[in-house]
Amino acid sequence: MRKPGSVKGLEELGRGRLSPSFFMRDFLYSEIANFYRLPNIPENPDLAIAAGNRLCEELLEPLQATFGRISIRSGYRSPQVNRLGNEKGHNCASNESNYAKHIWDIPDANGKMGAMVCIVVNWYLDRYEQTGDWQSLAWWIHDHLPYASMQFFPKLCAFNIGWHEQPEKAIYSYIEPKGYLTTPGMENHKGDRTQRYEGFPTLVL
Q1: How far apart are CA 47 and CA 134, in angstroms?
Q2: Contact 102, 76 (CB under 8 A)
């Protein structure tokens, strides 16, 4: 598929079905693009759809099937939108850091494909707001899903979750205590953590 150059072409891109529950259109909205009047359109739609398909099939569909509706906060970003977000201080990493992450249609420095989305698990939100506990959800995902990386944020317990051809399985938090919860090489990367998420629903695939 070529980069859309018309409303009709953009509609066709948006109709691209990434998984049973998700379409490409679900991931194209951007507050940055909206405010600064920039189109948020992939240069390589086929790669964006391929990466988005893996993100949705392997991560978002199991999350939604298990916990109920999830809310998308930030999905795909074009290089132009992400660069402006970085320059304006809107919590966007550099383009180079976001290749194969929020920029789905450009491989990373190693030529690997990936995709990232920022979501809220609505089922978990009340628990987080009452207790401030974000780690239970992080550990549940770590133990059940083939994620590449996660970064948790204070507002709404929203978090980035990424799929990647070579997953690292690292969890970082901007919620206190800030820093890495786990990353390869840390003693807690493997082990039994079922008590940390006691009462959580059983994974639905």
Answers
A1: 32
A2: yes
Q: What is the pLDDT of residue 53?
A: 98
Q: Calculate mean pLDDT across residues 98-109.
A: 98
Dist. CA 38–CA 130, nearest whole Å? 38
CA 49 to chain centre: 14
- How many Å apart are CA 117 and CA 104, to the nearest integer? 10
- 187 token code pair: 């003693």
SS3 content of the chain, % helix, strand, coil (to 5): 40, 15, 40
Comparing CA positions, the residue from 115, 103, 112, 108 lying closest to residue 43 is 103
C-alpha 145/C-alpha 19 separation (Å) is: 16
The structure tokens listed for 97 are 């850091």
Average pLDDT estimate for 85-94: 96
> Do residues 132 and 155 make contact, with C-beta atoms less than 8 angstroms apart?
no
Concatenated DSSP letters of 43-103: SSHHHHHHHHHHHIIIIIHHHHHHHS-EEEEE----HHHHHHHHHTTSS---HHHHBTTTB
Using alpha carbons only, how large is the chain's radius of gyration in Å?
17
Amino acid at 68: G
Q: Exposed, middle or buried by CB within 10 Å (0-12, 13-18, 19+), for 96?
A: exposed
